[in-house]
Design a protein that fits this description.
This protein has 473 residues and is an alpha+beta fold. It folds into three domains: 1-168, OB fold (Dihydrolipoamide Acetyltransferase, E2P) (Beta Barrel); 170-242, E3-binding domain (Dihydrolipoamide Transferase, Irregular), CATH 4.10.320.10; 250-471, Chloramphenicol Acetyltransferase. It has seven helices and 19 strands. The chain has helices at 174-183, 201-230, 250-263, 278-288, 300-314, 360-375, 449-464; strands at 3-9, 19-25, 32-33, 38-43, 48-52, 57-62, 69-71, 75-82, 268-276, 320-323, 328-331, 337-339, 341-343, 346-348, 351-352, 389-393, 412-416, 420-426, 429-443. Strands 9, 12, 15, 16, 17, 18 and 19 form a seven-stranded mixed β-sheet that branches. A hairpin with a 4-residue loop joins strand 10 and strand 11. The longest helix has 30 residues, at 201-230. It is globular, with a radius of gyration of 28 Å.
């Protein structure tokens, strides 16, 4: 069968977004790929998504370079795939249609939603193919010196490339490749210290520090003169650069737009409550020695999350949203608990589905998995949407309180501060107690001051005396 060209356009990843950034390609021109093999990492405004191939064939052309923001529907890669007849197409830009006006129009290929084409139930899932210098010659010529994403031109046959020149792409993970790209580090120049030569984050940072030191040695005298003339501090304190400009895109762009929309749409009210949480800290200490929780990581966040779910049942207006288009207030009868997580890509708020149905142990496991996945940059777009209320833990940074901005579409967000030992009134005496400040921001269109105050007070009551839960459920 003669090969035909199939063009793959950037699909709608199911988030209603209009563009995505190509973070990294896992294939190069001339690679043979299998159906549903991961061919690229694509960054949306919410998450990094692995993009599977909708075809089995040979990569003919990569239309976009890593770092390029591409609109949904734009071509990103072309494949030579086995055809059922007709002329062979040697150029990605050529059409697979014939000149017969009476021929039926070509069947339009389905637009994926980011999760791969259908596979037959027989057989095992396709594994990612890796190039090898000893592999058989692929169906399309391999251009060893051709940069990833360069257009493939119809030209005379090229001389065979020696096996030594067909080197593998540097081995690293998507977050490490993105870090290297952001820092301007060439991965091909690094020797990985990880298993089987895997390039790690530490390898990239070490190379960046080495480059900065070399630059400092070459330009130190010039910077010294500049500092003396301007009266400012030596620029070497900022890695030799006067300033750094970073494009506003991806998670940072999405977060900024969402926060501006939230701040200027929902009338925010913030209330504060400082609570003696000594009893809760004692409970945590007992749970850590309990056989039932021996393998569970119990933290103050877990207790606050559980207290919030209990308090929501008594104060349901905090678990609602304002539907401007329908002019309705939507009351949620479930709790999708969002947890604000700081990641190298920026702030994300993945949520625990149906958190109100989870016991303390299950909630602890869910929060642990959620934060680890978020920090690794592997949170799926589905887990970043649909939240009903959120918690932000500023206490891990040593902060006591703040005025958190609502996550769009939610009625409230709770900020928990650090736990500190402070002199406190206890049983009519001054004692050294463990104290935490809670900050609750809510949408005053949905929540009255009384409702917000009762909700915050209920959380404080549970944390100050966990046994009071028996009076609330």
């Amino acid at each position: 069968m003669s090969p035909v060209i199939k063009e793959f356009r950037l699909p709608d990843l199911g988030e209603g977004l209009t563009e995505s950034e190509i973070v990294a390609w896992h294939v190069a021109v001339g690679d043979t790929v299998e159906l549903n093999q991961v061919i690229a990492d694509v960054e949306t405004a919410k998450a990094v998504v692995e993009l599977p191939s909708p075809y089995a064939g040979v990569v003919a052309k990569l239309h976009e370079q890593p770092g390029t923001v591409v609109e949904v529907g734009s071509p990103i890669v072309s494949f030579d795939v086995p055809g059922s007849g007709g002329p062979s197409t040697n150029s990605p830009d050529a059409s697979a249609d014939t000149n017969d006006d009476d021929a039926p129009p070509p069947k339009r290929e389905p637009n994926l939603v980011g999760y791969g084409a259908a596979v037959e139930k027989t057989g095992r899932p396709a594994r990612r193919a890796r190039r090898s210098s000893g592999a058989a010659e692929p169906a399309a010529p391999v251009r060893a010196a051709e940069p990833v994403g360069a257009p493939v031109m119809a030209e005379a046959p090229q001389p065979s490339v020696p096996a030594e020149a067909q080197l593998e792409r540097p081995r690293s993970t998507p977050p490490v490749r993105k870090l290297a790209r952001d820092l301007g580090i060439d991965l091909t120049a690094l020797n990985g210290s990880g298993p089987q030569g895997l390039i790690t984050r530490e390898d990239v940072l070490a190379e960046q520090q080495k480059s900065a030191q070399e630059g400092s040695g070459q330009q130190g005298s010039d910077r010294g003169v500049q500092s003396a003339e301007t009266g400012g501090a030596p620029a070497s304190r900022m890695n030799g650069e006067r300033e750094t400009r970073t494009p506003i895109k991806g998670v940072r762009k999405h977060t900024a737009a969402a926060m501006v929309a939230s701040a200027f749409t929902a009338p925010h009210v913030t209330e504060f409550l400082t609570v003696d949480v000594t009893a809760s800290m004692d409970l945590l200490a007992r749970l850590k020695t309990s056989r039932a929780f021996a393998d569970v990581r119990i933290t103050p966040l877990v207790l606050v999350a559980k207290a919030l779910c209990i308090a929501l049942d008594r104060n349901p207006t905090l678990n609602s949203r304002w539907d401007e288009a329908a002019q309705e207030i939507v009351q949620h009868h479930y709790v999708n608990l969002g947890i604000a997580a700081a990641t190298p890509r920026g702030l994300v708020v993945p949520n625990v589905r149906d958190a109100h149905t989870l016991g303390l142990r299950e909630l602890a496991d869910a929060l642990k998995g959620l934060t680890e996945t978020a920090r690794a940059g592997k949170t799926s777009p589905a887990d970043l949407s649909g939240g009903t209320i959120s918690i932000t833990n500023v206490g891990v940074f040593g902060i006591d309180a703040g005025t958190p901005i609502l996550n769009p579409g939610e009625a409230a967000i709770l900020a928990m501060g650090s736990v500190r030992k402070m002199p406190w009134e206890y049983q009519n005496e001054i004692a050294l107690r463990q104290v935490m400040t809670l900050s609750l921001s809510f949408d005053h269109r949905l929540v009255d001051g009384e409702q917000g105050s009762r909700f915050l007070a209920d959380i404080g009551t549970i944390l100050s005396d966990p046994g009071m839960v028996l009076t609330m459920v």
